[in-house]
Amino acid sequence: MQRQEWSTYNQWHMLLDELCNSRGYVDNARLASQLCRRAGKAAQEDFNAAEKNLRNWRLGRHLPLRRNFMILAELLRVADDPGLLRQWNLLYAAARGRTLPDQQENAADAKPDRAPATRRRLLWTGAVVATAVVAVTGFRWLSVDPYRDLPVIGYDARVRMLVGESRLIHGDRGDCDGGNVPDWTYTMPRVPVSSLGAFSDGGLARKMSNFCNGVVPVRAVRFTAKTAGVEEVRLLDDFVKIFVTDPASLSR
What is 167-235 written as a DSSP string? Predict the structure, then answer.
Protein backbone atom coordinates (compact mmCIF):
# COMPACT_ATOMS: atom_id res chain seq x y z
CA MET A 1 0.00 0.00 0.00
CA GLN A 2 1.31 3.47 -0.90
CA ARG A 3 1.96 5.86 1.95
CA GLN A 4 -0.50 8.49 0.81
CA GLU A 5 -3.35 5.99 0.97
CA TRP A 6 -3.27 5.71 4.77
CA SER A 7 -5.02 9.08 5.01
CA THR A 8 -8.12 7.61 3.33
CA TYR A 9 -8.98 5.71 6.54
CA ASN A 10 -11.14 7.75 8.92
CA GLN A 11 -11.74 5.15 11.65
CA TRP A 12 -9.03 3.44 13.69
CA HIS A 13 -10.52 -0.05 13.60
CA MET A 14 -10.69 0.05 9.78
CA LEU A 15 -7.02 0.98 9.65
CA LEU A 16 -6.20 -1.81 12.12
CA ASP A 17 -8.09 -4.37 10.04
CA GLU A 18 -6.34 -3.31 6.84
CA LEU A 19 -2.95 -3.48 8.58
CA CYS A 20 -3.68 -6.97 9.92
CA ASN A 21 -4.61 -8.17 6.45
CA SER A 22 -1.66 -6.51 4.72
CA ARG A 23 0.77 -7.93 7.30
CA GLY A 24 -0.56 -11.45 6.76
CA TYR A 25 -2.80 -11.75 9.82
CA VAL A 26 -5.98 -12.67 7.96
CA ASP A 27 -7.29 -14.56 11.00
CA ASN A 28 -6.53 -13.59 14.59
CA ALA A 29 -4.84 -16.73 15.91
CA ARG A 30 -1.21 -15.94 15.03
CA LEU A 31 -1.44 -12.30 16.05
CA ALA A 32 -3.17 -13.28 19.32
CA SER A 33 -0.31 -15.67 20.06
CA GLN A 34 2.28 -12.94 19.45
CA LEU A 35 0.27 -10.45 21.51
CA CYS A 36 0.24 -12.86 24.48
CA ARG A 37 3.95 -13.58 24.13
CA ARG A 38 4.78 -9.86 24.01
CA ALA A 39 2.60 -9.24 27.09
CA GLY A 40 4.21 -12.12 29.00
CA LYS A 41 1.09 -14.29 29.13
CA ALA A 42 1.04 -17.99 28.33
CA ALA A 43 -2.22 -19.48 29.64
CA GLN A 44 -4.88 -20.79 27.28
CA GLU A 45 -7.44 -18.35 28.68
CA ASP A 46 -5.05 -15.48 27.89
CA PHE A 47 -4.84 -16.62 24.26
CA ASN A 48 -8.64 -16.98 24.06
CA ALA A 49 -9.09 -13.48 25.48
CA ALA A 50 -6.53 -12.00 23.08
CA GLU A 51 -8.18 -13.67 20.09
CA LYS A 52 -11.61 -12.38 21.15
CA ASN A 53 -10.25 -8.88 21.80
CA LEU A 54 -8.62 -8.76 18.37
CA ARG A 55 -11.90 -9.71 16.75
CA ASN A 56 -13.70 -6.94 18.66
CA TRP A 57 -11.00 -4.36 17.93
CA ARG A 58 -11.03 -5.10 14.22
CA LEU A 59 -14.83 -4.84 14.11
CA GLY A 60 -14.81 -1.54 16.03
CA ARG A 61 -16.79 -2.88 19.00
CA HIS A 62 -14.33 -1.43 21.49
CA LEU A 63 -10.79 -0.07 21.71
CA PRO A 64 -7.65 -1.64 23.16
CA LEU A 65 -6.14 -0.15 26.28
CA ARG A 66 -3.00 1.89 25.69
CA ARG A 67 -0.60 -0.97 26.54
CA ASN A 68 -2.17 -3.26 23.95
CA PHE A 69 -2.34 -0.36 21.51
CA MET A 70 1.44 0.07 21.79
CA ILE A 71 2.09 -3.67 21.44
CA LEU A 72 -0.09 -3.81 18.33
CA ALA A 73 1.86 -0.93 16.82
CA GLU A 74 5.09 -2.83 17.41
CA LEU A 75 3.82 -6.15 16.03
CA LEU A 76 2.32 -4.48 12.95
CA ARG A 77 5.47 -2.39 12.32
CA VAL A 78 3.53 0.86 12.30
CA ALA A 79 6.62 2.99 12.95
CA ASP A 80 8.19 1.82 9.67
CA ASP A 81 6.04 4.37 7.83
CA PRO A 82 5.83 7.92 9.31
CA GLY A 83 2.59 8.61 7.46
CA LEU A 84 1.03 5.45 8.80
CA LEU A 85 2.27 6.17 12.33
CA ARG A 86 0.65 9.60 12.28
CA GLN A 87 -2.68 8.29 11.00
CA TRP A 88 -2.57 5.41 13.50
CA ASN A 89 -2.13 7.79 16.45
CA LEU A 90 -4.54 10.41 15.10
CA LEU A 91 -7.44 7.98 14.59
CA TYR A 92 -6.88 6.28 17.95
CA ALA A 93 -6.91 9.66 19.69
CA ALA A 94 -10.07 10.66 17.81
CA ALA A 95 -11.82 7.40 18.74
CA ARG A 96 -11.04 8.11 22.40
CA GLY A 97 -12.41 11.64 22.09
CA ARG A 98 -9.02 13.34 22.13
CA THR A 99 -6.85 15.35 19.75
CA LEU A 100 -3.13 15.33 19.16
CA PRO A 101 -1.12 18.43 20.19
CA ASP A 102 -0.44 19.50 16.60
CA GLN A 103 -4.16 19.19 15.83
CA GLN A 104 -4.89 21.66 18.62
CA GLU A 105 -2.27 24.06 17.25
CA ASN A 106 -3.70 23.78 13.75
CA ALA A 107 -7.17 24.50 15.08
CA ALA A 108 -5.90 27.61 16.89
CA ASP A 109 -4.16 28.85 13.74
CA ALA A 110 -7.13 28.18 11.44
CA LYS A 111 -8.18 31.14 9.32
CA PRO A 112 -11.86 32.16 9.21
CA ASP A 113 -11.90 32.88 5.47
CA ARG A 114 -11.92 29.28 4.23
CA ALA A 115 -13.78 28.62 1.00
CA PRO A 116 -17.36 27.32 1.54
CA ALA A 117 -16.54 23.95 -0.03
CA THR A 118 -13.53 23.50 2.24
CA ARG A 119 -15.59 24.49 5.28
CA ARG A 120 -18.32 21.99 4.37
CA ARG A 121 -15.67 19.28 3.93
CA LEU A 122 -14.19 20.03 7.36
CA LEU A 123 -17.61 19.97 9.00
CA TRP A 124 -18.43 16.63 7.36
CA THR A 125 -15.08 15.15 8.50
CA GLY A 126 -15.73 16.37 12.05
CA ALA A 127 -19.17 14.77 12.01
CA VAL A 128 -17.69 11.45 10.89
CA VAL A 129 -15.10 11.50 13.68
CA ALA A 130 -17.70 12.50 16.28
CA THR A 131 -19.97 9.68 15.16
CA ALA A 132 -17.06 7.23 15.36
CA VAL A 133 -16.28 8.37 18.90
CA VAL A 134 -19.83 7.74 20.05
CA ALA A 135 -20.14 4.45 18.19
CA VAL A 136 -16.83 3.01 19.35
CA THR A 137 -16.54 4.31 22.91
CA GLY A 138 -20.04 5.33 23.94
CA PHE A 139 -18.56 8.41 25.63
CA ARG A 140 -20.30 11.78 25.86
CA TRP A 141 -18.81 15.15 26.70
CA LEU A 142 -19.76 16.06 30.25
CA SER A 143 -19.18 19.29 32.14
CA VAL A 144 -18.63 17.52 35.47
CA ASP A 145 -16.59 14.54 36.61
CA PRO A 146 -18.73 11.53 35.58
CA TYR A 147 -17.01 9.25 38.11
CA ARG A 148 -17.22 11.27 41.33
CA ASP A 149 -20.29 9.43 42.70
CA LEU A 150 -19.08 5.91 41.90
CA PRO A 151 -18.48 3.44 44.76
CA VAL A 152 -14.87 2.97 45.86
CA ILE A 153 -13.49 -0.57 45.98
CA GLY A 154 -10.11 -2.09 46.75
CA TYR A 155 -8.23 -5.24 45.92
CA ASP A 156 -7.87 -7.68 48.83
CA ALA A 157 -5.97 -10.96 48.44
CA ARG A 158 -8.27 -12.49 51.08
CA VAL A 159 -12.02 -12.00 50.77
CA ARG A 160 -14.31 -13.15 53.60
CA MET A 161 -18.05 -13.35 52.95
CA LEU A 162 -21.24 -14.99 54.18
CA VAL A 163 -23.49 -17.22 52.09
CA GLY A 164 -25.98 -14.98 50.32
CA GLU A 165 -23.74 -11.91 50.46
CA SER A 166 -22.92 -10.00 47.26
CA ARG A 167 -20.01 -7.58 47.05
CA LEU A 168 -17.70 -5.75 44.63
CA ILE A 169 -14.29 -7.33 45.21
CA HIS A 170 -12.05 -6.18 42.35
CA GLY A 171 -11.89 -3.78 39.41
CA ASP A 172 -10.37 -3.66 35.94
CA ARG A 173 -8.94 -0.23 35.16
CA GLY A 174 -8.40 1.51 31.85
CA ASP A 175 -5.89 4.27 31.28
CA CYS A 176 -4.50 6.26 34.19
CA ASP A 177 -6.16 9.44 32.94
CA GLY A 178 -9.58 7.85 33.49
CA GLY A 179 -10.34 7.22 29.84
CA ASN A 180 -11.24 4.02 28.06
CA VAL A 181 -12.75 2.15 31.02
CA PRO A 182 -13.06 -1.53 29.99
CA ASP A 183 -16.49 -2.91 29.19
CA TRP A 184 -17.60 -6.29 30.53
CA THR A 185 -16.78 -8.13 27.29
CA TYR A 186 -13.15 -7.09 27.72
CA THR A 187 -12.98 -7.95 31.44
CA MET A 188 -14.98 -11.20 31.46
CA PRO A 189 -12.29 -13.46 29.89
CA ARG A 190 -10.08 -12.82 32.94
CA VAL A 191 -12.84 -13.65 35.42
CA PRO A 192 -12.84 -17.30 36.59
CA VAL A 193 -15.64 -19.73 37.34
CA SER A 194 -16.12 -20.30 41.07
CA SER A 195 -17.42 -23.34 42.92
CA LEU A 196 -18.50 -21.13 45.84
CA GLY A 197 -20.56 -18.55 44.00
CA ALA A 198 -20.85 -16.44 40.88
CA PHE A 199 -18.87 -13.54 39.42
CA SER A 200 -20.74 -10.88 37.46
CA ASP A 201 -20.47 -7.37 36.04
CA GLY A 202 -20.42 -4.88 38.89
CA GLY A 203 -20.75 -1.81 36.70
CA LEU A 204 -18.48 1.21 37.09
CA ALA A 205 -16.62 1.94 40.31
CA ARG A 206 -13.41 3.65 41.49
CA LYS A 207 -10.23 2.06 42.78
CA MET A 208 -6.87 3.22 44.08
CA SER A 209 -4.20 2.22 41.57
CA ASN A 210 -0.58 2.05 42.69
CA PHE A 211 0.49 2.00 39.06
CA CYS A 212 -1.40 5.23 38.32
CA ASN A 213 -0.65 6.68 41.77
CA GLY A 214 -4.26 7.74 42.22
CA VAL A 215 -7.92 6.79 42.14
CA VAL A 216 -9.17 5.75 38.70
CA PRO A 217 -12.49 4.48 37.31
CA VAL A 218 -12.72 0.72 36.83
CA ARG A 219 -15.02 -2.01 35.57
CA ALA A 220 -16.04 -3.62 38.86
CA VAL A 221 -16.34 -7.37 39.39
CA ARG A 222 -19.08 -8.55 41.75
CA PHE A 223 -19.01 -11.83 43.64
CA THR A 224 -22.16 -13.44 45.07
CA ALA A 225 -21.43 -16.14 47.67
CA LYS A 226 -23.67 -19.21 47.44
CA THR A 227 -21.83 -22.10 49.11
CA ALA A 228 -19.63 -22.26 52.22
CA GLY A 229 -15.99 -23.17 51.66
CA VAL A 230 -12.53 -21.89 50.76
CA GLU A 231 -11.25 -21.35 47.25
CA GLU A 232 -8.28 -19.63 45.59
CA VAL A 233 -8.85 -18.15 42.13
CA ARG A 234 -7.01 -15.97 39.65
CA LEU A 235 -9.09 -12.84 39.14
CA LEU A 236 -7.96 -10.11 36.72
CA ASP A 237 -4.42 -11.54 36.83
CA ASP A 238 -4.35 -11.38 40.66
CA PHE A 239 -4.70 -14.31 43.04
CA VAL A 240 -7.62 -14.06 45.47
CA LYS A 241 -8.48 -16.48 48.27
CA ILE A 242 -12.20 -16.49 49.03
CA PHE A 243 -13.59 -17.66 52.38
CA VAL A 244 -17.38 -18.19 52.45
CA THR A 245 -19.07 -18.94 55.75
CA ASP A 246 -22.58 -20.23 56.41
CA PRO A 247 -24.31 -17.74 58.76
CA ALA A 248 -25.95 -20.67 60.60
CA SER A 249 -22.54 -21.86 61.78
CA LEU A 250 -21.87 -18.57 63.52
CA SER A 251 -24.73 -19.01 65.98
CA ARG A 252 -23.63 -22.40 67.23
Answer: EEEEEEE--TTS-SPPPHHHHGGG----SSEEEEEEEEEEEEETTTTEEEEEEEEEEEE-S-EEEEEEE
